[in-house]
Write a structure and sequence with these properties.
- Helix content is 55%, strand content 0%.
- The protein is built from five helices and no strands.
- It has helices at 5-20, 25-32, 36-43, 51-61, 66-69.
């Protein structure tokens, strides 16, 4: 199964911020209350993470959820433009 490009972008953003903060994947997972393997799946773009989990991760990284999604394309690959519905 091919990975969704949007999930890969999201995971890359989370990984970049985590590393900039000097946190291990394991520590971020622990602090956010999610499993280490699940966190790894998020960062690799293998998990379609919920908004609530993104909020937990953002809180632990000291940033807004919007930072994770700033590079996601609107209207492409599964994200529908509301005007085209």
């Amino acid at each position: 199964m091919e990975k969704n490009k949007n999930l890969i972008i999201l995971g890359d953003q989370i990984r970049e911020i985590r590393k900039a903060k000097g946190l291990s994947q394991e520590q971020l997972a622990w602090d956010a209350g999610v499993g280490r393997a699940y966190m790894g799946g998020i960062e690799r773009g293998e998990r379609n993470v919920t908004v609530l989990t993104l909020v937990k991760i953002a809180e632990q990284l000291g940033c807004e959820v919007s930072v994770f999604t700033k590079n996601l394309p609107i209207g492409k690959e599964g994200i529908k433009n509301p005007k085209t519905r």
